[in-house]
Amino acid sequence: MKLHVVHRTTYRYAGPVTQNLNEVRLKPMSADGQVCDSFSLTTQPVSRLSPYLDFYFNYVEFFEVQEPHKELTIESVSTVTTHSRSLPRDAVTAPTTRLPECLQLERCYDFIQPSALVAVSPLVWRLALDASAGNTDVWQCAVAIMRFIYSGFSYVPNATSVNTHMSEVLQQRRGVCQDFAHVMLGMCRAIKIPARYVSGYIYNGRADQLVGAQASHAWCEVFLPDLGWHGLDPTNNQPVDDRYVKVAAGRDYADAAPVKGHFRGTPSREMKVEVEVSAL
Predict the structure, then answer these.
(1) Helix (H) / strand (E) containing 102
(2) How large is the greatest C-alpha to C-alpha distance in the chain, in angstroms?
(3) The whole model's pTM is what?
(4) What is the crossing angle of helices 122-131 and 177-190, to 10°?
(5) 15 neighbors 70 (Cβ within 8 angstroms)
(6) Which end of the chain, N or C, is surrounded by fewer C-beta atoms within 10 Å?
């Protein structure tokens, strides 16, 4: 599938701000069957962009606006070709007895540990065991956890913030896509399934009723022995397929945030995010 993505973030400040420093992770990856055919990033006020790869090989653009300004717009336009690598829900992959092997793999180690927004506690472990009870296959355990979150949590915009810890989401049983991804990460990691956070986009075709297509989306990838990383979307209760555009991955939202930074000036601001994903 060939997809065209426009992502525009606009900040309006109550007063002039200066020294506005930002890291932007908006360029789609060229990996795992996905190819970023074209990408452009612009800012207003105009600023110099400095690209680099972060620790998890996400493409990052850094920029700063030193002069006083009351509005900042960041817009990316990309064209991506995607190919489905999704596994069927009922796929049989590897027995859970092979999970200790993952502890020996450098690419899995960070994704079995707790992180800034994800807890791996006895409570989460017990919850994960109950949700995956009866399953001895790694993929089937992850699918069961995804199904548990989809059926037990409510999608409620503005119920949380991007800094909400998964423990709070577990108590409230409500949130948005990044919250559900964090809960799934914690539950998978608690039973030693390597799981990483993924940010990106989802194409909502005319016949689809997918949640999260109107903004940046988030889901999980779990590591399967011999098969590598495969995605599951707890917000929509489905494996990740060619409708998904992968942009960045990390331990949690903090590693893969589309835009993050700081500035000097008034703390009062408004943020507006517009995302349009269309098929070419």
Answers:
(1) none
(2) 60
(3) 0.94
(4) 90
(5) yes
(6) C
Tell me, which fold does domain 96-255 have in CATH?
Answer: C8orf32 fold (3.10.620)
Sequence-distant (6+) residues with CB within 8 A of 41 are: 24, 26, 27, 49, 61, 74, 75, 76
- Residues 122, 235, 145, 55: is their CA dihedral positive or negative? negative
Specify the amino acid at residue 255: D
Q: List the CATH code of the domain at 2-82+257-279.
A: 2.60.40.2250
User: Residue-wise pLDDT tens for the chain (280 aa)?
Assistant: 999 999 999 999 999 999 999 999 999 999 988 999 999 999 999 999 999 999 999 999 999 999 999 999 999 999 999 998 889 999 999 999 999 999 899 999 999 999 999 999 999 999 999 999 999 999 999 999 999 999 999 999 989 998 999 999 999 999 999 999 999 999 999 999 999 999 999 998 765 667 766 678 999 999 999 999 999 999 999 999 999 999 999 999 999 999 999 999 988 999 999 999 999 9
Amino acid (one-letter) located at 21: L
Ranges of each domain in the chain? 2-82+257-279, 96-255
Per CATH, 2-82+257-279 and 96-255 having the same topology is answered no
